[in-house]
Structure formats: C-alpha cells, structure tokens
Amino acid sequence: MARRKPSRSRRSKRSNRRGGGNGEWGWYLAIAVCVAIAVGVAIASSKLISSSQFDEATLCLMGNQHDTTLILLDVTDPVNSTQQARLEALINREIASSRVDTMLAVGIVSEDPENWGEMFAKCKPKSGAEANAIYENPQFVMERYQEEFIDKVDETLAAAFAGETENQSPIMEALQALVADVPDFSNTNSDRKLIIVSDMIQNSETLSFYRGQDWGYFVETGGDTRLARNLTGIDIEIIRITRATPNQPDTAIVDGFWTRYFDIQGSNAPVVRSLGDL
Description:
Blueprint: H1 8-51, E1 68-74, H2 81-97, E2 103-109, E3 118-123, H3 138-161, H4 171-181, H5 184-187, E4 192-198, H6 215-220, E5 235-241, H7 251-265, E6 271-275
Parallel strand pairs: 1-2, 1-4, 4-5, 5-6
Antiparallel strand pairs: 2-3
C-alpha cells in the first residue's frame, strides 16, 4: 500500500512550529541581554553612588579634596538694606560660579571672641540640573541643594546682619579664628579664596587705626612676630564697605597696613571693590 504524502497544510504547520521554536529562543536571548544590561547598569550605578558618598553635616564628598572659599563679614557697624541686597547678590554670584563640592564657610567680625569662627560651613552640592537621572533623583538633589545649602546661607546672612553695633572691630583676630576653624584651608593644594566684607578699619586692643597706630607701631609692639603666615598662595577679595562716619582714620594708614599684612602672610595681592549704597 502506497504511503500518502503529507499534505501541504501539515508541512506548513510543521514548518511554522520549527520556525516558532527559533523565534522563542530569539526572545529568550533578547530578554537575557536586557537583564544583563540592567544588572550592569545597576552595578555601575551602585559604584558611582558609593564613590560619591557625602558627609551629612557638611555635604562634602568623602575622600575628595575640595576648593574652599571663606567669607568674613564685618558687621560691627550696621550694613544698610541697599548694601545688604548688593552683598547677597555678590555672594549668590560667587556660589553660582564655584564648582560642585566647593567648601563655603562664613564667619563674622565681632568684639566677642565667642562669636568668631565659622557660622556656616558646607560644600556646594549638585543642583537638580546637574543630577544624573540614571542613578540620582533630580527632585531630591534639587531639594537638598535648596534646603540644605542655599536656604542655610540665607539664614546665616540674615543672622549676621541682625547684630547690634559693637565698640571694636578685631578684623585680624576674627580672620585667624575663621581660618583655624576650617583647617583644610591652609593645608590643601586646591583653589582657595578669602572674601572680606569690611571697611577694613582694625580696632582692637592689639591695634587700632582710630588711635593712629600704623604698621610701624605694629612692628614695634611685636605684632608682626605673631602673624600666622598661613595665607600662602590664597586669593584675597576685599569688598570694602563705605560708611559716612566722623573721625575716619587716615586712608594711608589703613591701606599701608593691609598691604604689608597680606604680603607677609603670603597671599596673592588683594582685589578690592567697593560696596557703596549711592
């Protein structure tokens, strides 16, 4: 008896089943590749996250050598509202131009040594626009930047401006206290900057321009031997507050003293700008 040949429809079904098997394996392979990629991204992301751990208190990246900017505010005399607004704008521009993980520390000049040192010291974190959407939450990053950094800077400035008029302006002493509070400032090779907002009229028991005491007096009394000489290579910016007050010290005494002071301390030549209100 002759064997019947399989019909065309049966051959087509068998062919489809064989083709379907190959298609299924293709899907399995594609899924495996996708899983491998996802695992690889997860591992890479975890490594990036672990290498970018930051200190909760300072927001500084751990193990990273960061740039540092110190801001010393002389608020022993009132700063009017116009000058406050200009100063806030200047500081905001400084923050915007600084790199991520730059340490910003703020201190004040006060006749009370208890008020010396840093009032605020944190590293600039990433903003939401700088977050990596693959392994970071841009919304969380933006909130941290605003709430833990920008808002804290604003609160620090508001507290500084709220102070009362004081009888002395120990600029040198407050400056060294701020530098001592941020030890990496003197011991790092990263970019370092010191911004002093003041009329630059030193007035303390050590030296007072109001008493006509100049650099010569400072040397005669041994003041130059007490200098820390710890500002080597540091950029200095002086934002000079102009005040219309009587009995202003001789400008030659003031400028001559600070020129010699920063030269012996080893800093770069200061850049001076005025914080006027007219």
